Amino acid sequence: MESSNRLLLLAAVLAATAAMSGCSIFRRDKVEQPQTEEQAAAEEEAEDADSTPPRVIEPNVARRKIKTPKIDNENWEIGVGAGFVSIEDFGTNPSYAAQISYHVTEDFFFRADLGQSTAGKTSFETLGGDIELLTGDERRFTYYSLSLGYNFLPGEVFLGRDTAMNSGFYVMGGIGSVKFAGDNRLTLNFGAGFRVLPTDWLAIHLGVQDRVFDSDLLGETKVTNNMEMLLSATVFF
Amino acid sequence: MEPSITTTRSRRLRRTSLALAFVFACSLSAPGLAKETEAEKAAKEQAAQEKLLQVFISEPYLELSTGPGRGYPVFHSVERDASVDVLFRRTDWFKVRDERGVEGWARARDMRRTKLADGSPFVFNLGDRDGFTSHDWELGIGGGDYGGANLINAYGAYSLTDNMKVELTLSQFLGNSSNGYKVEAGITHVIVPEWRLSPFLELGTGVVYVEPRATLVLPEDRTDQTAYVGAGLRFYLTRRFFVRADYRWHTIFTSRDDNEELEEWKVLIACFF
């Protein structure tokens, strides 16, 4: 049995080497060296053929291809809000705002705000009768800001025994611009807010921000602080 | 049980019905809240189309927290070889649901050690140094100087390769003599993206809108085409954040006889994802 196996293998090896030399007929001079090496290797293989039985069955197992569904990333938060903004010297007036945030890590987020209000009258105008410092269009107070926020105190709030909602206190600061009295001004803004999440995708914010800019409307140039308080609802997507 | 890769559920449906339920809750207060949970249940039972990823726990257990943050308490653990469905991801936390229907938040570091149904590891992008080298999107905000005017700037970029990015920049500038906006699109080439402090070159074009300040006697607002060439540095900070500073040299193709040339520099804080 053993000898017949060996004979078979030797025959196979001989046939293979003959075929190979045939293939490389055009480069016979260069083939010489590898051929002898190959033969030696084949002979060695033939010697320990007893320990490795010849392959009989080709495994015909198709690997199952698994399509992994895409994971839904919910790092964006968009929403609208309403509140009040106190425009220095021009009273406190209702304001409306839209905001969009991108949550980079559990601690930090980027946020863009866009808002609008209409300035009231200065006390000078109120007392002075017919005096109007600004026209109707100039009284429009439009602002935007780009901020970086930090989730300062994450936590949970409880409504009764059974309801717990995730919440967080955050601080933020950034730069932006305000268009008021017919002119654009660079603003710095900083503030803080409290966020409650009734569900995973909905958040209610109560935030306060100060928008600081230089104004020369009333004669001399001064730094004005414009405090804004907003209640807003946002959704994550 | 034969491990299946997906289970089904309609989150979008649940979301809309929840949104409606929330409106009810606002108007009806306490009884509305009861309706919300009912709506949630109903939506859960509804025929679901969306497929969810199922992963298998290969560590001794997977801890679930009540919220997506390091301080939230761990309230549940899923044992080895059990599976969880991945509902969604927020920053470095995954909202998952186990076989018994318990939902909680698992941290990305732990999810990295789970396996898919075919035994291969669950791989996803983690905000780290490797991510800084190779990522899809960038987003940044910052400020600087544009020809003597203050500049407010936001940009977004998409990576074509690790080296090459297409970029959209939105800016507003506020100067003594004029204000304005500009929108620019360009190509950025990061020379060695593997380096923590890595230089880049940029080239682009856009539109600039200038409105002279009211106090000056200049005729009218104008819109011109602009082109820039620039260079800068980006420095990886931590997690998903990096700082980028760059210098751009602008040519504004005005309708007058001469083109205007302006210098711009800015510093931005940016993130990648």
Please tell me about this protein's structure.
The complex is a heterodimer of chains A (237) and B (273). Chain A has 237 residues and is α+β, with helices and mostly antiparallel strands. Chain A has 2 domains: 46 residues, no CATH class; 161 residues, Porin. Chain A is built from 3 helices and 8 strands, in the order H-H-E-E-E-H-E-E-E-E-E. In chain A, strand 4 and strand 5 form a beta hairpin. In chain A, helix 1 packs antiparallel against helix 2. The radius of gyration of chain A is 39 Å and the shape is elongated. Chain A starts with a helix and ends with a strand. Chain B is of the alpha+beta class and 273 residues long. Chain B folds into 2 domains: 119 residues, SH3 Domains (SH3 type barrels, Roll), CATH 2.30.30; 141 residues, Porin (Beta Barrel), CATH 2.40.160.20. Chain B is built from 4 helices and 16 strands. In chain B, strands 9-10-11-12-13-14-15-16 form an 8-stranded antiparallel barrel. In chain B, a hairpin with a 2-residue loop joins strand 9 and strand 10. In chain B, helix 1 packs antiparallel against helix 2. The longest helix of chain B is centred in the N-terminal third of the chain and has 18 residues. The N terminus of chain B is likely disordered. Chains A and B meet through strand 3, strand 4, strand 5 and strand 6 of A and helix 1, strand 2, strand 5, strand 6 and strand 9 of B.
